[in-house]
Amino acid sequence: MTIPETGSDRGRLVGALLHGLAILDMFERDRPVIGIGEMAQELGTHRSTTSRLAATLAAAGYLESVGEPGRYRLSGKLAALGQLVASEDQVRRAARPALEELVQRLGETGHLAILDGAEAVTIEVVDGWHTVRMHSWAGKRSPAHCSSMGKALLAGLSETEVKSRYPKPRLATPTDATIADRAELMRALARIRAEGYAVDLQELEPHLCCVAAPIFDSTGAVVASISVSGPDIRISTATVPDIARAVREAAWRIGTRLGAARPIPGWAPPDEQPSV
User: Fold this and answer.
1) How far is it, in rounded angstroms, from Cα 269 to Cα 263?
2) How many CB atoms lie within 10 A of CB 179?
3) Closest CA to 99 of 256, 253, 268
């Protein structure tokens, strides 16, 4: 890691954190254990300062002491974080072909999302081909309780897990159509599991409507959701059933690539016939 010495970026950065990350960068396959002296020399910092940095990383679970005092190796926590990144990338790779086919079929903008706390985070977007369409981007965050992709993700959690994300009975309501309280959200999540898909009919934004379905992995857990979004002139109570069949079909195909079994206990089974 290169630590900036001068320039406008330097004033916005935390030096101690940069030095801590630089320590992590020192470890390699053929250099699994590093001592304080080596760290200090490479960082250009005093040994006592380096010792405090390493001790802090160890206390946070990123390093662990090995052998004599002052020698460290990486902990398993970093491997766990790496698995999270790999898992998200695996879902993205598995989903992209089905997402593109879904958008080509329906013309609406397609999204792939994961859950982060009480927010749905878009990690993949395929633009629709309709002239009037929703514009989105990877990295966009939406309140999970008022987006179809968020509700599809929440439906994969236990009641306790949902309540931990929504400790207050009342929920934020961006529009008049938004679910307003936690009890109503629980009922909506039960319907999603029974039907296999989630809808957002102007709950997040006026005139914006979405249909989503959960994506399951080999353990039966909901790891992501796939959705299509468009204006209320095309996505409505009249068109949702056909759209939902197409979205569910795409979600099941992605899940199959991830090793998901059929059916998933507690969820509506996939449709017997593919949508046309």
Assistant:
1) 5
2) 21
3) 253
Give me the pLDDT at residue 184, please: 97
Percent of all residues in the chain with a pLDDT value above 70, rounded to a whole number: 90
Q: Which of 276, 200, 232, 247 is nearest to 99 (CA)?
A: 247
Contact (CB, 8 A) for 166 and 117: no
Owning domain of residue 222: 84-257
- Assess whether 67 and 133 both reside in one domain: no
pTM of the model: 0.69
**Whether 97 and 133 share a structural domain:** yes
pLDDT computed for residue 275 by the predictor: 39
What pLDDT does residue 86 have? 47
- Answer whether 71's CB lies under 8 Å from 85's CB: no
Asked if residue 122 and residue 57 are part of one domain, the reply reads no
Residue 54: count of CB within 10 angstroms of its CB: 23
Burial class of 134 by CB neighbour count within 10 A (0 to 12, 13 to 18, 19+) = buried
d(C-alpha 5, C-alpha 155), whole Å: 48
> Using the 8-state DSSP alphabet, how is residue 98 labeled?
H
How many domains, in total, are found in the chain?
2
Q: CATH code at 186?
A: 3.30.450.40
The three-class DSSP label of residue 133 is coil
Based on the fold, state whether residues 107 and 211 are members of the same structural domain.
yes
pLDDT computed for residue 156 by the predictor: 94
SS3 call for 117: coil
Mean pLDDT, residues 48-65 taken together: 93
Length of the chain: 276
pLDDT at 128: 92
What phi, psi does 248 have (nearest 5°)? -65, -40
